[in-house]
Amino acid sequence: MDEQIGITVFVGTEELSVSIDDVQEVIEPVPVLSVPVTHCFFTGLISLRGAIIPLVDLHSVLHESPSLFTNKDKKYIICRSGQKSIAIDIDSVGDTFSFTSDQVSAPANDKTVLQQLVSGQIRLADRELPLLSIARVIAYTSELNAKQREQLGYLAVH
């Protein structure tokens, strides 16, 4: 079987999973450079060992309720999809777990933001976890930023 490894992350009251193949590292929060004329979900840019990486506030994207965790639990998870990297602001990191493709089902067919950002649901023995698609998070954030700029007359969306 094609065993894979996932990691759980917490955003508000939501428990999500990310494929460990998409994760470069998990870091403590670092200073953020805000970028004007961007969507509010796009927190800004961080510098990590000379690389400039966009930071997305997943809490805001998912319209989640206040965190059950303290600020000392807060982390940035650095992810990659193809040639693009992104830092995702999360409330806490959970455990790693193993799963196979047989345990992954299609995402729910609803129009919530979360369902637009997941590639499937992982069925574990005790629960189901949405599998976050880093490519979809990057595309979603890029689209929102482009629309924001277009509305303000800076850039046309193609």
TrEMBL record:
Pfam families reported in the protein's UniProt record: CheW
Domain CheW-like positions: 3-143
GO-annotated biological processes: chemotaxis; signal transduction
First and last residue of the signal peptide: none
GO cellular component labels: cytosol
Top-rank taxon: Bacteria
Cited Gene3D superfamilies: CheA-289, Domain 4, SH3 Domains
Identification of the protein by name: Chemotaxis protein CheW
Organism per entry: Sporolactobacillus terrae
Encoding gene, per UniProt annotation: mvhQ
